[in-house]
UniProtKB/TrEMBL annotation:
This is DUF3558 domain-containing protein. Residues 29-55 have a biased composition (Low complexity). Residues 24-61 are annotated as: Disordered. Keywords: Signal. It holds the Pfam family DUF3558. InterPro entries: DUF3558. It comes from Saccharomonospora azurea NA-128. Residues 1-24 form the signal peptide.
Length: 203
């Protein structure tokens, strides 16, 4: 894996959105990103007007993931991450579908990936960061991202990571790791999955 330790957070409530959901076993709740417009930056991110989020300088086309979120990870990547074949499922907190992969080992560990389209991109996550229990900007493979959440359940294995891959699309990576006992484990794994997904998209 390319990353194993990271500071984390779970997610931000966006303007015009207030739907909450349980993460896996219900240890963390996350609202829904709402529309707006932007996301174009990178390595030393500059701020956009949308909530102060960094812009995306090397946008990726993530349209394929809206139709087939399980295409986010190749067979080789799944093997490297210790995940079994994914299953597409409705994402009840957002319009669209997510892919869920279970760990290949006997455990309750899982990770979900959803490509969310909105006019604000990552700016939507930043818009109401003060309403969250924690909010920690980061980068994944050169793309602006943030760990942010209403409830801090990182040490019990739940982590929400949001990555801006273009002006309108944010990747939502949700880990539910029963085997994790630290934020580094749960959010580090989310970052690994995000980096693999970005690689799949050509980033």
């Amino acid at each position: 894996m390319s990353r194993t330790a990271r500071t984390c957070a779970a997610f931000a409530l966006l303007v015009g959105a207030s739907v909450l959901t349980s993460c896996g076993d219900g240890s963390d709740a996350a609202p829904t990103p709402a529309p707006s417009e932007s996301a174009e930056s990178s390595g030393s991110p500059s701020s956009s007007p949308q909530g102060g989020a960094p812009t995306v300088s090397n946008p990726l086309d993530a349209a394929s993931l809206s139709a087939d979120p399980c295409a986010a990870l190749s067979a080789k990547q799944l093997a490297e991450l210790g995940l079994a074949e994914g299953e597409t499922r409705p994402n009840e907190q957002f319009e669209g579908e997510a892919c869920r992969w279970q760990a290949t080992e006997e455990s309750l560990d899982s990770v979900d990936v959803t490509a969310l389209d909105n006019t604000d991109g990552l700016g939507g996550v930043y818009a109401t960061k003060d309403q969250n229990d924690y909010f920690e900007p980061t980068e994944v493979a050169g793309y602006p991202a943030v760990y942010s959440g209403l409830i801090d359940a990182r040490d019990s294995g739940t982590c929400n990571l949001w990555v801006g891959v273009n002006d309108q699309t944010v990747l939502h990576i949700l880990t539910n790791l029963a085997s994790a006992d630290s934020a580094d484990a749960s959010c580090g794994f989310a970052a690994d999955v995000a980096e693999s997904t970005i690689s799949t998209l050509g980033g």
